[in-house]
Amino acid sequence: MTFEPHIAWRYLFSKKGHNAINIVSGISAAAVAVVTAAMICVLSVMNGFGALVEHMFSEFDAPLLVVPSEGQTLRTDTAPIASLYAREDIEVISMQLEQTALIRYKDHQLPARVLGVDDLFTKTAHIDSIISDGFYSVWDGAWDRTVLGRGLAAQIGMNAHFTGALHLYAPERTGRINMMRPDLSLHHEYAFIAGTFAVNQIEYDNEMLLVSLPLAQRLFGYDSLTATALRIQPKRGQNTASRVQTEIAKLLGPGYKVLNRYEQQADFFRILRIEKWLTVLLLVFILLIASFNIIGSLSMLIIDKREDIQILSHLGADERMIRRVFLLEGWLISLCGTVVGIVLGVALCLFQQHFGWLKLGSGEEYIISAYPVLVQWADVLLIAVIVLALGFAAALYPAKKMNVS
């Protein structure tokens, strides 16, 4: 250990002339530790909620989704799309057609997002795991069936055990509307409910219903080769989804967009990231206030060690060397608080992750019973860098302003 760190380390633990200096130094380190632990805990909880919602979306969303760059629909008989079916790294390509229609059951009616899916839909979504009542079926061999979001079923007044038909209406895409009989300008289809699903996200549970792709194509006036998107399941164990996404995007060209699960829910994850970093900024501001304790304790230490400074100066230590001693002293206070805070924060997160001591509540309104926690070591490293940087900046001011002579 060189001269400056050795002296700074001794000053950190040695007895001071005034006991108040020890108390203030301890409070400084404790404040840094508490804020550091709080930052780790808060970010880990936010990561936990993000991972939870990501898992919910992944039960329904396809690993990759091909959509047109312009317009609402794409043709599956074009050369770029046809080339996807020849790729060996793609396991399943499923067609879907999604648009808004009016649905009616008895005296209840409201607009809803109708998603028409083909027989391969179940290979790109874990639909069976999110069925909350009844079963999944959009065609039983004789009748069209539908699976509604749980909230949408409640709004329309249906459940999986009702036998009445759900009626669907959509306006003609082409032609003129007969103002005398506007009902004649509507496509009408009907389907019988098979079950309800719950993704625990409003945009799915309260707005969407699944029907067969042929029914959706008839309802919205499209032929069998038209879809709004292609759901793609890459083969497992060969290429990663990101690599397949990049290759498909190059193959299809600028006329199409290939979206992964994050990009399919871009708005949600963007808001989640903004909330996360706003929380970090708020905690950094609290840490900045706590760092003023380091300025106070270091200033008191400089006054207390006035005789030692004179001795070091007579022994040949120059002004720059003495300033570095007290700069390192202040930084060591921050370092001790950082280490303790990281250990405490990670320990609390791991205990919560394994034992779930902090409960959200009980009942059906909660998806999980305890706060979800996910410790990401990149966040821990970032927090450590921020805390140590602020600690160094706090120690720099009194070290620069000290009078060595």
Task: List unreliable stretches of 5+ residues.
Answer: none
Overall residue-averaged pLDDT value: 84
What shape does the CA trace take? elongated
Determine the structural class based on helices, strands and strand pairing: alpha+beta
Rg over CA atoms, rounded to whole Å, is 32 Å
Q: What is the spatial order of strands in the main beta sheet?
A: 3-4-9-6-8-7
Helix content: 40-55%
Number of domains: 2
What does this structure look like?
The mean pLDDT is 84. The protein has helices at 3-13, 19-60, 79-84, 150-156, 202-205, 213-220, 241-252, 261-264, 266-304, 306-314, 319-355, 377-401; strands at residues 64-68, 74-75, 90-105, 108-117, 131-134, 145-149, 165-171, 186-197, 208-212, 226-227, 229-234, 256-260. Helix 9 packs parallel to helix 12 and helix 11 packs antiparallel against helix 12 (377-401). It contains twelve helices and twelve strands. The chain is of the alpha+beta class. A hairpin with a 2-residue loop joins strand 3 and strand 4 (108-117). A six-stranded mixed barrel has the order 3-4-9-6-8-7. Strands 2-10 form a two-stranded antiparallel ribbon. It is 50% helix and 20% strand. It has two domains: 3-58 and 268-401, no CATH class; 64-264, no CATH class. The two termini are 26 Å apart.
